[in-house]
Specification:
This protein has helices at residues 7-18, 58-61, 85-106, 120-123, 132-152, 178-185, 205-216, 234-245, 269-275, 283-294; strands at 23-26, 46-49, 68-71, 109-114, 156-161, 164-165, 190-193, 203-204, 224-226, 251-254. With 319 residues, the chain is α/β, with parallel strands linked by helices. A 4-stranded parallel β-sheet has the order 3-4-5-9, with helices on both faces. Strands 1-2 form a two-stranded parallel ribbon. A two-stranded parallel ribbon has the order 6-8. Helix 3 (85-106) links the parallel strand 3 and strand 4. Helix 1 (7-18) crosses helix 7 (205-216). The longest helix is centred in the N-terminal third of the chain and has 22 residues, at 85-106. It is globular.
Amino acid sequence: MTGGAGFLGSHLCTRLLDAGAEVDCLDDLSTGRAEKVAHLAGRPGFRFLERDISEPGCADALTGPYDLVLHLAGPASPAARPDRPVEVLDAGSLGTRTALAVAGRDGARFLLASSPPPSPDTRGADPVGPHRACVEAVRFAEALVAAHAGAHGSNAGIVRLFAGYGPGMRADGGTTPAALIEQALAGRPVTVPGDGSATHPLCYVDDMVDGVLLVAAGRSVRPVDIGGDEEPTAAEIARLVIELTGSDSPLEFVEDTDDGCVPPRPVTGFAREIFGWLPSVTWQDGLERTVAAFRGRREPFPAPGGETADGRTGQEWWA
């Protein structure tokens, strides 16, 4: 599993080990964190490799043989890591090519964890515009997987992940409800942009893991959307966070810095009909579990108006 020390990757590693699988977890720790998989150290069948899948010779360290190659080492969203465009493009191109080669060598199923495609009418097609490195990396990675499947008959597929959240997520990336939880626990104003009416298809991490593994167990080449079927508003999420944390933090509506892009929504009919996937955790229950986990783990979050570690403001997840 590439990107195995990330939020979703660490949950997948744990689930696979619990099911009796052996797991090689590869991560260069540029965005992942070793502590996310520290609890797996010493477990039979688990091996952690601090390597960059994009680097030459990385495939030699992945001795296998493997039954499944999960490639999670790509950009988490079109707005992710704007300050590292070359690394993002390498992960989507060289990294994906290497991971596909490892899967092809062993006759393994390959699954690319991808991001929702941006709306072409709002993002445009300029390859040098803001955040375009991430957009193009996602686009190229998907095209490469589809080309391999078509030209070589590779058992390769794509799963597109929408708004996953849950215990273990980072609060300093500005991409998740964790930002609101950190604000509430710290007693700062809980901020949402505009009037808070924008809706979000939250998907709890356990449901997302279920979806990924169901798609991984199949042979579908067609991209499969995995995301929540409930769409609470930003204001509803913020109010519930304040209630669950017992915080005195006020709800604060701030300027909406959205660039006009309408966030895509998951179309999960294919996942339900073909793979039998159905999310089972409501967004309210999921937030309650996430808040409970955060009470024992506090990560710094930027002050209102400040920037996160990846150069974004804490409210950009809601855009």
